[in-house]
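Title: Prediction job returns without error message
Component: structure pipeline
Severity: low
Priority: P3
Assignee: unassigned

Description:
Job completed but the reporter wants confirmation the result is attached to the right record. Sequence as submitted:
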Amino acid sequence: MFVLDTLLHRLKRGCETMAYPDGPAPALPDRHGGALRLDAARCASGCTACVPVCPTTAITRPAGGAGATALDLGRCLFCSACVDVCPTQAVTKTGDHRMAVRTRGDLVLGGPGREQLRLAAALDEKLRRLLGRSLRLRQVSAGGCNACEADTNVLGTIGWDLGRFGIQFVASPRHADGVLITGPVSRNMELALKKTWEAVPGPKIAIAVGACAIAGGPFVDHPEVHHGADEVIPIDLYIPGCPPHPLTILDGLLRVIDRLGAAK
């Protein structure tokens, strides 16, 4: 009787997995804000108001405000301090969940044509063919605060159901196609990350999730952490945020295995 009651309850609830990417993406919460946009042409002459408020030096402008402003979303904690103090709205929130890129330089905004991110392209055809448009990932928490780890774990819940895309987290690097790294890669985790990476059979990929794994996050320039996981192993995908929204992580994973289709 208990089993029958459970089945009837599930039938009444119906499918609770989101329609994305076949349907529209769920809206981000207001407090999240999504990716930032930088229109350096709108920066007032001599203005550097946004520079001192950034806790990680993610936004820079030459002294005196005579040169172009640059915003590194890899370092950015998305605290919105720069948005709040900018008198000309040169830095704005977009509400866009899409932020994953393939190269570190693509996270730096500023200059003509660089107002917004150049989003990640899929892996090359040979690698996609070998992976079979699926991913088995070994997650490495390299000194993280558990925020990025929690948002990564959310993808395994019924609402997201990461497994329907052929993406799974595995217990052993021997069973993995690559690694997904969170945290600032502390000196104590450096060797563990290297050994995990070396244990993954090739061809393989590495994904850095969150500001810590990309550039050190709030610990940037601290002697006990690296300036991103790419100082230890080669990175194929960068997913910024502090922490990145689960939708941002999912978008990046689907992009590299070319599973987004019309949702791009």
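Comment from assignee: result matches the submitted record. Residues 187-199 form the longest helix (13 residues).
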